[in-house]
Write a structure and sequence with these properties.
The protein is built from 9 helices and no strands. The protein is mainly alpha-helical. Helix 1 packs parallel to helix 4, helix 3 packs antiparallel against helix 4 and helix 3 packs antiparallel against helix 6. One of its GO terms (biological process) is retrograde transport, endosome to Golgi.
Length: 271
């Protein structure tokens, strides 16, 4: 009787751990963007967040979903990609609205200073359908980003449909999906190196991503996910550790500030 009770407790505990791990895998990737979203809404300033992070994550997760048609992987990872895509679209919508409101307010102040009428304030529209490379991913309305994402998805899906029988294409598709996501930390790593400082970067954010990437990589290994997943997961952990080393090094050995203007380029691992 006691053995049966013990087995039931172990079974319930294992199921609980499994649910927690599943929830962490599905929602853990979007948690760091919650404070970023709240900060942008509070300050009405989106300059500290690079929308190119959204671009990379959208491309990576769309390719990952297409990769599943050629090589099956866990449904949890599929839901993770779907939720990440939704999160990045929400971030894009907020950043676009804030940026356009900021540009409008700036122009209004400029017109008021020159005694011009408020009705004359105009912001040039930058549209996706203009196909102007100078304004790529800097469009005026959220719908233009949706059009771009939809166009990319349709083209990528069509190519995948044509080449689905090619093992080389399928494996390359999977590698590109996870490699793009794994490289998200490198812009911040390079920016820190250029500035010889990690000032303004959220250390808590980097620690959160390091623990998350470590957990994710271990999950990939334990569940025998495709090799592309855990190798790029290891690469993410290495980049995270490198950024943490920069935090230690530049705080212990402060460098002379560089003369050029600090870039606003950020990654998903920095606020």
């Amino acid at each position: 009787m006691e053995d049966e009770l013990f087995d039931q407790i172990v079974s319930v505990f294992n199921q609980l751990v499994s649910w927690v791990a599943a929830g962490a895998m599905v929602f853990g990737g979007v948690v760091p963007y919650i404070p970023q979203y709240r900060d942008i809404r509070r300050t009405q300033n989106a300059e500290g967040f690079s929308t190119y992070v959204c671009l990379v994550l959208l491309v990576a997760n769309i390719l990952r979903i297409l990769f599943r048609f050629g090589r099956y992987f866990e449904t949890l990872l599929l839901w993770q990609s779907i939720i990440m895509i939704a999160t990045m679209l929400i971030m894009l919508n907020l950043c676009t609205n804030v940026r356009m409101a900021t540009e409008l307010n700036t122009k209004r102040r400029s017109f008021i200073a020159t005694d011009s009428k408020d009705e004359e304030v105009r912001i040039p529209k930058r549209l996706f359908l203009d196909f102007d490379w100078n304004y790529f991913w800097s469009w005026s309305h959220f719908v233009d980003y949706l059009q771009c994402v939809l166009a990319f998805t349709l083209v990528a899906a069509y190519i995948t449909y044509l080449l689905l029988d090619s093992a080389l294409f399928v494996e390359t598709l999977g590698f590109l999906a996870v490699f793009a996501e794994a490289m998200l930390g490198t812009p911040q790593l390079y920016c820190n190196y250029q500035n010889k400082s990690t000032e303004g970067m959220s250390i808590k954010m980097v620690l959160m991503w390091t623990s998350g990437d470590t957990f994710k990589t271990g999950y990939f290994l334990l569940t025998q996910a495709p090799v592309q997943f855990w190798t790029c997961g290891l690469l993410q952990v290495i980049v995270d550790v490198a950024i943490l080393f920069q935090v230690y090094y530049y705080s212990r050995y402060p460098q002379k500030p560089v003369s050029h203007t600090v870039s606003h380029t950020t990654s998903a691992k920095a606020l």
